[in-house]
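can u do me a favor
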């Protein structure tokens, strides 16, 4: 049952990165949109993220519950030594959701709308930034349970070049996902070309940030190159991501919105595989050379059994409901195959 729990944890993180990432990316796209195009971008954005924006954080909650119940040592370590970036990320999630609600449904539209807009776009940037920083910190080898001062224990555990580079890579990746999703939400050719240009810029930004991540890993003696290219799985995943990126840009011109969304999600999946496969089951690499493992540091057997059963049972209800939710918002009676991207 432990492997069922681990699979659910990995899938929850993946879905949060893909679906929540596109959600956060919508705010990032808005941040880098000119004033004259902002209103149109917001309208198209609502159509894209409307069906699932409130449900996205379900995946984060599931991941947190899995760690809390199934891996208490790992949960305690993260919530202790990475509590500062965790709090900033959670504050960003709260601020973003609040701002999005008030700027859309506030009974009075006045100058406060400008405040809500700024909170929305800045929190859309900050949240994935610190999500990436947290992810990078867990494998950076900077978490130090033996630290004897505040800076070593709670600041340098996450404030390093590698973790920050992962953070900016995550921001660029979210912006890229959002641009790909937004391409399929408009039938206006001018708007579609505008989002294609933004997708290209975010793609370039992601490649540049990814390069910085590798440079930072070399500088800080983190074996990222070995993790990515040191196994046949990693090489195949990188190759598949590259091929799918080429196919994505070819299919964008064909107007196949469903396929390009699948390819964008596939690329994120391949990235996550390359960065987690080699050091599995180690989820936190410590400064003293030790590590916290999903196998060696699992909770009580009874807890794992109950958790696995709950996850399997819950998925029977949650997944069909989520699929229907997305379909019901996207489907429009009388819509042709061309309008749905050929699916």
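np, heres the sequence
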């Amino acid at each position: 049952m432990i492997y069922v729990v681990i699979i659910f944890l990995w899938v929850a993180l993946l879905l949060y990165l893909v679906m929540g990432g596109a959600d956060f990316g919508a705010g990032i796209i808005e941040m880098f949109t000119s004033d004259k195009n902002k209103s149109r971008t917001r309208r198209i954005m609502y159509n894209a993220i409307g069906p699932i924006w409130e449900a996205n954080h379900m995946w984060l909650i599931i991941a947190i519950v899995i760690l809390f119940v199934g891996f208490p040592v790992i949960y305690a370590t993260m919530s202790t030594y990475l509590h500062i970036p965790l709090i900033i990320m959670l504050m960003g999630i709260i601020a973003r959701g609040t701002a999005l609600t008030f700027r859309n449904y506030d009974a009075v539209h006045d100058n406060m709308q400008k405040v809500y807009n700024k909170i929305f776009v800045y929190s859309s940037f900050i949240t994935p930034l610190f999500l990436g920083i947290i992810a990078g910190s867990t494998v950076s080898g900077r978490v130090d349970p033996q630290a004897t001062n505040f800076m070593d224990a709670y600041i340098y555990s996450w404030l390093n070049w590698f973790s920050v580079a992962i953070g900016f890579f995550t921001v660029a990746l979210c912006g890229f996902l959002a641009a790909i999703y937004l391409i399929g939400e408009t039938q206006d050719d001018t708007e579609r070309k505008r989002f294609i240009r933004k997708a290209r810029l975010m793609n370039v930004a992601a490649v540049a940030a990814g390069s910085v991540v590798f440079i930072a890993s070399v500088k800080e003696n983190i074996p990222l190159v070995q993790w990515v290219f040191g196994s046949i799985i990693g090489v195949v995943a990188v190759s598949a991501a590259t091929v799918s990126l080429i196919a994505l840009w070819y299919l964008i011109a064909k107007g196949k919105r469903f396929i390009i969304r699948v390819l964008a999600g596939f690329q994120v999946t391949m990235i996550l595989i390359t960065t987690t496969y080699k050091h599995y089951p180690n989820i936190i690499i410590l400064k003293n050379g030790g590590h916290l493992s999903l196998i060696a540091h699992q909770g009580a057997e009874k807890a794992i059994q109950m958790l696995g059963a709950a996850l399997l049972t819950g998925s029977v209800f949650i997944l069909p409901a989520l699929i229907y939710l997305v379909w019901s918002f996207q489907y429009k009676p009388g819509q042709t195959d061309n309008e749905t991207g050929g699916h």
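The first strand starts at residue 282 and ends at 285. hope that helps!!
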